[in-house]
TrEMBL record:
One of the Pfam families matching this protein, by short name: Thioredoxin
Keywords: Disulfide bond, Electron transport, Redox-active center, Transport
Organism field: Inquilinus ginsengisoli
Residues making up the signal peptide according to the UniProt record: none
CDD domains: ybbN (cd02956)
Protein name per its UniProtKB record: Thioredoxin
Superkingdom of origin: Bacteria
Family of this protein: Belongs to the thioredoxin family.
C-alpha cells in the first residue's frame, strides 16, 4: 500500500516485448503515463516484418511521447483470444487504460506516422484539462466501489500535479475506503500547510475522523437501538448510534439521529449533535443531496 503514496521512479524503454502475464503492467498501467502502441505479430507473418520496423522507427522519432509493446500471438494465444486478434499484423493503441485507436494489416509509413502523430496529439492536450478529466474518472471509479483503482489514478495525477488538492483528497478517501486509515494519516502529515488547508482535503480529513470514530461503534449497533427503545432521551446512545450508522454506510439515518438529538436537546454535551452534523456535512461535500437537505432541516430547528 505504500506504493499508493510513493510513486516509483524510473524510465521505461520506448520499445519492449511483452506477454500475457506482463500485459497489464506493460500496457494498461503504462498507458496511464503515455499512449502505448501494441503490435500483435507472428514469426510466420510476412507483412509483420514490413510493418514492425516502420512502427519502431516512428515510435523512436516520437522521443518518449508514445511507447510500443510487441506481442507474439503464437507465444501468447490466451491474450490474443481475449483481445479477439483474428489476423496479424494488428495494432492497437491504449491510453489511460483503454484502447483508443488501431488498425489491421501492413499500411504505408505515411499512415503509420499519422497514427503515431495522432496519439502524440491526444496525450499532449492542455495539462489542466487532462487533470480535470482524470479527476472525474477517478471519482467515478471510487463512487463505483473500486477504491484500489481510484487510488492508482489519484496517485498518477499527483505524480504530475503534486499541488492538486482534489487529487490528495481523492487519494485520502480511497485509502479510507480501503480501510488504510494509518496510510491516510501519514499522507495528511506529509502535506504542505497550503495543501492541508485545501477545502477538499479538509473534507476528506473530516471523513477520516468519522471513519475512525465509527470503526468501534458498528459492533454495538443493535445494543444502541435497544438502549434508545428503552429510553428515547438517552442522548449518548443516540449520538453513538449515529456514529455507528455512518460507519455502516447508512448516512441518511446517521443524519436523522443527529437531527433528532439536536431537536431533543441542542445544548447536550456542548452542542455535540450540531458539531457532528457540521463535520458530517463537510465529509459528504457541500453539493451532496444529503448535505443540502440536512442543512435545511438543521436551519429549521435552529430558528424554530
Amino acid at each position: 500500500m505504500d506504493a499508493l503514496i510513493n510513486a516509483a521512479a524510473g524510465t521505461a524503454p520506448a520499445i519492449k516485448d511483452s506477454s500475457t502475464a506482463g500485459f497489464r503492467a506493460d500496457v494498461i498501467e503504462a498507458s496511464m503515463e503515455v499512449p502505448i502502441i501494441v503490435d500483435f505479430w507472428a514469426t510466420w507473418c510476412g507483412p509483420c516484418k514490413t510493418l514492425t520496423p516502420i512502427l519502431e522507427k516512428q515510435v523512436q522519432a516520437a522521443q518518449g511521447k508514445v511507447r510500443m509493446v510487441k506481442v507474439d500471438i503464437d507465444q501468447n494465444q490466451a491474450l490474443a483470444a481475449q483481445l479477439r486478434i483474428q489476423s496479424v499484423p494488428t495494432v492497437y493503441a491504449f491510453y489511460q487504460g483503454r484502447p483508443v485507436d488501431g488498425f489491421m494489416g501492413a499500411v504505408p509509413e505515411s499512415q503509420v506516422k499519422a497514427f503515431v502523430d495522432k496519439l502524440v496529439q491526444l496525450a499532449g492536450h492542455d495539462d489542466h484539462d487532462h487533470v480535470d478529466q482524470l479527476l472525474a474518472e477517478a471519482k467515478t471509479v471510487l463512487d463505483g466501489g473500486n477504491a484500489e483503482e481510484a487510488a492508482g489514478i489519484y496517485q498518477h495525477i499527483l505524480a504530475h500535479a503534486p499541488d492538486s488538492g482534489a487529487a490528495v483528497a481523492g487519494l485520502l478517501r480511497s485509502l479510507i475506503a480501503l480501510g488504510e486509515t494509518d496510510q491516510a494519516k501519514q499522507l495528511l502529515e506529509s502535506l504542505t500547510p497550503e495543501l492541508a488547508q485545501h477545502a477538499e482535503v479538509q473534507a476528506a480529513k473530516s471523513a477520516l475522523e468519522l471513519a475512525e470514530q465509527s470503526a468501534g461503534a458498528i459492533a454495538g449497533l443493535a445494543g444502541l437501538r435497544q438502549r434508545l427503545a428503552a429510553n428515547p432521551d438517552d442522548h449518548e446512545a443516540r449520538y453513538e448510534l449515529s456514529t455507528a450508522l455512518y460507519g455502516a454506510g447508512q448516512q441518511e439515518e446517521s443524519v436523522d439521529e443527529l437531527l433528532e438529538l439536536f431537536r431533543r436537546n441542542r445544548e447536550w454535551n456542548e452542542q455535540a449533535a450540531r458539531k457532528q452534523l457540521v463535520k458530517l456535512f463537510e465529509a459528504l461535500g457541500p453539493t451532496d443531496p444529503l448535505t443540502l437537505s440536512g442543512r435545511r432541516r438543521l436551519s429549521s430547528l435552529l430558528f424554530s
